[in-house]
Write a structure and sequence with these properties.
The protein is an alpha+beta fold. It has four helices and five strands, in the order βαααββαββ. The longest helix is centred in the last third of the chain and has 19 residues.
Length: 144
Amino acid sequence: MVDVGDKPVTDRLAIAQGEVLMKNKTFELIRSAAMKKGDVLTVAQIAGITAAKRTSELIPLCHPLPITHIDITLTLDEGLPGVLIKATVRTKGRTGVEMEALTAVSVAALTIYDMAKAAEKTMKIQNIRLIEKYGGRSGNVVNE
């Protein structure tokens, strides 16, 4: 692990996004809460939050962080069709929360796939990326 002991504690924020594309039939099953495994969006939201909190257990050499806020939004988008996933993570710490935000989006997307795979095995998880990062020595990043 990188030694961050001499870095100052600052407010940190990271926002990540991703998408799960699917057929219209699968989209409608999710929208109508008709999947056999249950409410896909709620379960994916909880999975994303849990993943952000456990990132240091999943990613080697990633620092465990005291996360102060996690917000996961899942939006049904008819234009894809699919689900847009956005994770916002905050902390006061010596290192950023980019990995936590990216992990939250990734696990939320995998959860959507898992819960809907009985209806469709051709869904696509794509465009998982860091959108914004604030705080720390390297400064702010906006990737939109």
